[in-house]
Structure formats: C-alpha cells, structure tokens
Write a structure and sequence with these properties.
binds fructose -6-phosphate, seven-stranded antiparallel sheet, eight-stranded antiparallel sheet, alpha/beta
Length: 588
C-alpha cells in the first residue's frame, strides 16, 4: 500500500505534490512526508494525516522544482515521525520514497551496517537509500546505482529517488504500481493516475523491472540491464471532476449515489466484446473466479448467478487461498479475476500461479492500466470512474452488473440481460429516494450504540449478507456477521439476546418463506428484525422496502451501504478512511 508521487517541472514542486499526495491518501494515512532539492536535500515528514502534518510542518516552506512525496500505510516500523518517508543515505544526499515490502531487508541491513552505514529508522525502505549510496560510492551514477540496488532487493516495491545535485527523479517498479504522467509544465511519476489527473491525462504505465528517469522536459524508460525502451502513451479518459467530492460531505456518500450511472456504464460494452468473453467462458473446461474482500463477494454471487442463468458450475476462491488449488488447473481452465484496483497483491499472485500453468485470464477491473489488466489475456473495464473512498461501493454493483450480463450472454440472452440491467439501474433511484435515505438515517441513530449486528439471507442474498457485514464493520467498527439463514441454528443463534439487531434480506422469491422463518427464530429470542424486502411483513420491527427485480443483490446492498455510512457518521468515524485500512492492498 502507501502512495508515492514525484514531480519535476517548471513550477514549485510542493503545492503540486501536496495536492497529488492527498489524492493518494486512500492508499494509506499513517504518516506523510515530502522532499525537494533546494541547495541539498530538504525533508519534512511526520506521523498523522496529510492535513494535520501540513498544518504542523508547512510543506510549502520547502522550495525547489523537483520533489517526491509519500503517504504511508505502515508495514515495517511503527507509526512514528522517524519512520515516515522519505528516507535518506548516510550523508543525506539521496532521498527515497517507497511502496511495498523489501523481504530480504534484514540481511541487507546487516550487510550495510557491516560496511559502516548508519540507519536512522526501523523501516525496510531505508535499505534502498543506503544500497544506492553504496553503489554510488563504487562509481555508479544514480540510474546505474538504482538498477544495481533493485537487483539486490527481494519483495514487492515501487520507489522514487532524488539526489541533491541532479534535477531528475529515478523510479523503479517491481510488483507495485507505477505510472508516469506527462504534463505541460512538468512530469510526474506516481502510484496511480488520479494523483496527477488534474495536470495531465497522458500516462505511461511501467512494467515490472523497469526503471524510469523523468526530467522537467521528458522521460526515458530502461530495462533492468540499462537498455532504453519505448512504451506506448495511454490517454486516460477519467474526468478529474470524478475524483472530487462535488458537494458531498464524503466520497462514500457520493459514490453510493453514483450507482444509477455506474451500473449503466458497467454494461455499456458492445455486444461483440461481451460475446467474446462469454465464448471464452463457454469454451473453457473449469472456470475459476478469484478475488478478495468485496470483489470476492461479487464472485460468490457469480456462483449463484451462473448456476441459475446458465446452469454452469463455476469455482469461486479467495485469491489468497487459490494457490492451494492450483493442481486443478489445465490449459483449458479459465480464470476470471475480479478487482476494483487491479493491484491487489493476492489477486496478482493467483493470476501469476494460473499463468504458469498456461491458464487464460480474464479480468473484471476498474482501474485502467492496472497491473491486473496488463497481466490478463482480456479485460472488461467496470467503467465506474475513480473510487476514492476506501470502502468499495459502486465498484461492487458494477461487478455484479457485468457478471449478470456475462451469464445472460453465455446463455444466449444478451439483449434480455441488458434490458433487465437497465431497468435495475433505473430502480436504484427508488432505493436512493429521500424517503428511504431518511429512514436509513433514522435506523442508524437507533443502532449507533449496538455492539453487534447480524445479517441473514438465503441463496444470492447470502452473499449480500457477507458484503453487508463487511461494509458495516469496516466503517462503523460495529461487529457484524453475515449468515446463510439455514446456518443460524447450527450455532450462531446462541448469541441472539434481547434487542439484538438482525437484518433479514427477504426478496420476493422462492426462499422468502424460509428466510422469514429464520427471522422469526431470531425474533422469538428477543432479536430486533430489520427487513430489507420488496414488501413489509409483520415479522419486521423496522423495514426498508426496495423495488422488486430479478437481479435483487444489486439493489439490496445499497440500503446497507447507506446504513454503514450513516452509522459511521453517527459514531464519529471517518467514512472515507477507516482505521488500519487502505484501498489498494499491494502486500500479501
Ligand atoms: C471493502 C474493500 C476491500 C476490497 C479488497 C479487494 O470495502 O474495499 O475488501 O474489496 O481489498 O480490492 P480490489 O477489488 O481492489 O482487488
């Protein structure tokens, strides 16, 4: 995780870096730091969120047109001022910011200490600055030293380096994202295009083991042997406006409200493109969906959706567990990797394992140019626009919409699927009606002091309960648990006591009767039943009524997203940046 950004240009670096680093704060917010070249290397850094540290230290007091910046999600070394990036060499002539983990840092640290290097932090990152210094002491120039240092590093990393007497930034990538941005008044290198989208939409994505040098007038990319290479420029069609709050108090609320449009955008691919993926699915022998977190819950839904619409069996695995099952893979297997960021380390690892066995990989991904997209044989973009809030909301419903469309297309019913999805997108407006929002806000006030919330559902609604529980706990810090209704009496019922809130997801379908019976089992033990359903029922103590559609998981999750949001607000939690989390999970 962590966000890194560098700028070299004709303007003062710090205002640009501050704005760009804030755009990356979703990647981690334990500490922040900045370094510029201004008669030597100058650094300001500290533990805390960007605005707080800036108020304390004033990053604008750093001059210079070349700078690098970092927002941290701590791995090695506690959340302290001295562990904040950038990190320097012994003589403070080199500064480094880094995203990732150096796995062999302890042996390299011993080796460097043995050679007389003095360390100032507990981080793995500081190894990089001392290694570069070491190679420079042996007559390498900065770029050559970065190349040699990168050959000694094991693990996942993307890092940026500046040196006191060189008006350039050298960057290096291995398994963590890095992208160059070519602006009118200077050039960028960053973890994500959103950080420089206000300045340019011209981007070049680096691949593993590539080194890039940017100056104020240009850039050059090199392979690990130092040979120059040419790469294609991508024009990013995200609108910088999409990465703003646009009048909403939080990105989470904005992104929940965007779902009428984002569902439509997810299914805007032409028929030929969707048919191509559907043919790959139909031709495959063994289909494996892999993902993490919310994206995994979309995959769990895919299991039910493919079963009911195409009568096709698909395997669904947590990406982190997938390598245990790699012996099932053959050349006819198809992997469908689902990820908002396209940078989740466990997903990328699962794809690597699959590719080694000759498996074809399709990805459903939101971030254009992401590592997953570039590793896949074919990608379908979610088109949800930047998702800035750490919690996944709109990307989840986009994933579901695309999965439904694929299942319908596999069954030879593309048009029918698309029409139904358009209708669902329209109905999102009803779910987000002021009346519903008011009701959900009122419910949040009622539940704000509870310690636990249970969610029950059957069939497809079971995956909705898992996603709902994840939303509730990660942003409100209330313990929440999603359960298949049938599983209740196999243990969890023991936890139900007077006043315990339980959300029953009860769409009008063949399983409604059974889920209502399960809700009754809870109610008769004192539970407080919140129904999310297509019509009210006497069992419900509180109800949120949602329009009836076949693709109910897309609509049923939205009131829970809203409930999670309002619970966070009621409890004084930051909805966009929950504690201990980061959006792009680029470590295993
Ligand atoms: C939850 C959430 C995470 C992500 C997970 C996978 O709100 O955001 O659980 O879903 O880290 O991320 P992606 O989809 O980027 O691979």
């Amino acid at each position: 995780m962590c966000g890194i950004v560098g700028y070299v240009g004709y303007e003062k670096a710090t205002p640009i870096l501050l704005e760009s680093t804030k755009k990356l704060e979703y990647r981690g917010y334990d500490s922040v730091g900045m370094s510029t070249i201004d008669n030597g290397i100058k650094i300001l850094k500290g533990a805390g969120r960007i605005d707080d540290v800036h108020n304390r230290l004033n990053f604008h007091s750093l001059s210079g047109n070349v700078g690098i910046s970092h927002t941290r999600w701590a791995t090695h070394g506690g959340v302290t001022d001295h562990n904040a990036h950038p990190h320097t060499d012994c003589n403070d002539r080199i500064a480094v910011v880094h995203n990732g983990i150096i796995e062999n840092y302890s042996e390299l640290r011993k080796e460097l200490i043995g050679k007389g290097h003095k360390f100032k932090s507990d981080t793995d990152t500081e190894i990089i600055s001392h290694l570069i210094e070491d190679f420079m002491n042996n007559d390498k120039n900065l770029r050559e030293a970065v190349i040699e240092a990168s050959k000694r590093l094991q693990g996942l990393f993307a890092f940026l380096v500046i040196k006191d007497d060189d008006e350039k930034i050298i960057s290096c990538k291995n398994k963590c994202p890095l992208v160059l941005g070519m602006g009118k008044t200077g050039n960028f290198v960053a973890s994500d295009v959103v950080s420089f989208l206000n300045h340019t939409n011209k981007a070049v994505f680096l691949d593993d083991n590539e080194i890039a040098e940017i100056t104020k007038d240009g850039y050059q990319i090199y392979d690990i042997h130092g040979n120059p290479i040419n790469k294609e420029i991508n024009y990013i069609d995200w609108n910088p406006e999409e990465a703003q709050k646009s009048g909403y108090e939080h990105f989470m609320l904005k992104e929940i409200n965007e779902q009428v449009e984002t569902i439509q955008k997810a299914i805007s691919h032409d028929k030929k493109t969707i048919q191509k993926v559907a043919d790959m699915i139909n031709d495959a022998y063994g289909i494996f969906f892999v993902a993490c977190g919310t994206s995994y819950h979309a995959c769990l839904s895919a299991g039910y959706i493919f079963s009911s619409i195409t009568k096709k069996h698909v395997n669904v695995f947590l990406a982190s567990e997938f390598p245990n099952f790699s012996h099932f893979l053959t050349k006819n297997t198809l992997m469908i990797a689902v990820s908002q960021s396209g940078e989740t380390a466990d997903v990328l690892e699962a794809v690597r394992v699959a590719k080694e066995k000759g498996v074809k990989v399709i990805s459903l991904v939101n971030v254009m140019g992401s590592s997953l997209m570039r590793m896949s044989d074919f990608s379908l973009v979610l088109n949800a626009g930047p998702e800035i809030c750490v919690l996944a909301t709109k990307s989840f419903t986009s994933q579901l919409a695309l999965i439904y469309l694929l299942a319908y297309t596999c069954a030879g019913r593309y048009e029918e699927g698309k029409d139904k999805l358009k209708e669902v997108a329209e109905k999102v407006k009803n779910v987000l009606s002021p009346e519903n929002v008011k009701k959900i806000n009122k419910l949040a006030k009622k539940l704000k002091n509870k310690n636990d919330i249970y969610l029950i559902g059957r069939g497809l609604s079971y995956s909705t309960t898992l996603e709902g529980a994840l939303k509730l706990k990660e942003v409100s810090y209330i313990h929440a648990e999603g359960l298949a209704g049938g599983e209740l009496k196999h243990g969890t019922l023991a936890l139900i006591e007077d006043g315990m809130p339980c959300i029953a997801i009860a769409p009008n379908n063949g399983m409604k009767k059974d889920i209502l019976s399960n809700a009754m089992e809870i109610k008769s033990r004192g539970g407080y039943i919140i129904g999310i359903a297509n019509e009210d029922n006497e069992i419900f103590d509180y109800s949120i009524i949602i329009p009836e559609v076949e693709m109910h998981p897309i609509l049923m999750i939205i009131p829970i997203q809203l409930l999670a949001y309002y619970l966070a607000v009621e409890r004084g939690c930051d909805p966009d940046k929950p504690r201990n989390l980061a959006k792009s999970v680029t470590v295993k």
